[in-house]
């Protein structure tokens, strides 16, 4: 009887999500470990929060009661409480600090790494699940904490192998922008929505350029696909003021800061922000971080509403080519800022906090382009082939000896013959195949096949007879010397 094909499920990954192979996971693990080392050098300690939080804990910029799935993935539990997958790692930290406030040292310095989830329309390079690596200081009101975060961000880039000159930590202050917005009549709670539209418009400067931002500050922008994005609906004078602010960048930190002072003259909030920028600039330079590493940049705003002071982004400046040969810049691979209001939502009193988040997946792409990591061809284990199934226990003993010596090893557990087993080892990216038939066992020997050398020699040998006589890349060693011989071969191959 024929199988009912209508019952066959289609294998497909959910839209906006991706699978990751062993090589990508290994590369991510190595990068995360490097970041962790830098964070711990600065005195930050790990903490882990759940993937799921009560929806109302995630922040006022997230869904309201009528739209619980807007922006986040949400569900109701058996008590009819709304729960959501975390949108970022910052809001859960604010909840954790508030819940454990009395027992935590203040300032509290912590880091977290993990996946976050966005219920948003996916697109090229835009996923619904991605990894972030955050570091935050809670309980320090001084902008010295912000300056330190910027220094740590710069150190992280260089420790990962991104050379000086190929990145810059750009710093701005939301208070300065608030002063500008007050000057054009967008102060107060009543204008919160329009202010957020202005922030999002400025945040698109790198993507759309000044003219695109001008459209988003005005009536709106029509993109190449025909989709229309509604603008902030500012008048021409207000648009000109905002664009002047964005373009306020002198030949150095001092020039930029002085230009900002003139722009927000008479606005107390804006002037306070300028002085904070001046202090960050002073502290960074005193610690040896010049403007090639940390720079005051008024166009940095960050898209989230909860930032209350200094904000910063790490931008990569090198250019690569896409598949069509067109130049592409990676742009921002991390950012953060001061958010003095998030913990206060739980405690009802001001609690200063500042933090930084690395976009792990995006940064991994950049490091791959720079040749700092390899996301293809991760080496597999040594494979012990099964020539005689009656001797499976001996093959397991070989693998066990190798593992005890710290060498990755596996026994082939499929049902195929020798040719297929070697093919399997190649696909596993195994550096060595171990072969022992009954004749080798009788002599107390074992064959080691260098699969890398074998692959290279295979390109030079066309005749089957010559191939068999050459015993390509094979070495016979005493059984008792197996571990030492395998280790020596791995060293020669460059695996260890």
UniProtKB/TrEMBL annotation:
E.C. number(s) listed in UniProt: 6.1.1.21
Catalyses which reaction(s): tRNA(His) + L-histidine + ATP = L-histidyl-tRNA(His) + AMP + diphosphate + H(+)
Localization annotation: Cytoplasm
InterPro entries: aa-tRNA-synth_II (IPR006195), aa-tRNA-synth_II/BPL/LPL (IPR045864), Anticodon-bd (IPR004154), Anticodon-bd_dom_sf (IPR036621), His-tRNA-ligase (IPR015807), HisRS-like_core (IPR041715), HisRS/HisZ (IPR004516), HisRS_anticodon (IPR033656)
Top-rank lineage group of the source organism: Bacteria
CDD domains reported in the protein's UniProt record: HisRS-like_core, HisRS_anticodon
Keywords, comma-separated and alphabetical: Aminoacyl-tRNA synthetase, ATP-binding, Cytoplasm, Ligase, Nucleotide-binding, Protein biosynthesis
GO MF term list: histidine-tRNA ligase activity
Keyword Transmembrane helix attached: no
Domain Aminoacyl-transfer RNA synthetases class-II family profile: residue ranges: 31-381
One family name in Pfam for this protein: tRNA-synt_His
Principal location: cytoplasm
Subunit structure of this chain's protein: Homodimer.
Family annotation (NCBIfam families): hisS (TIGR00442)
Family indicated by similarity: Belongs to the class-II aminoacyl-tRNA synthetase family.
Protein name listed in UniProt: Histidine--tRNA ligase
Lineage of the organism: Bacteria, Pseudomonadati, Pseudomonadota, Alphaproteobacteria, Hyphomicrobiales
Gene this chain is encoded by: hisS
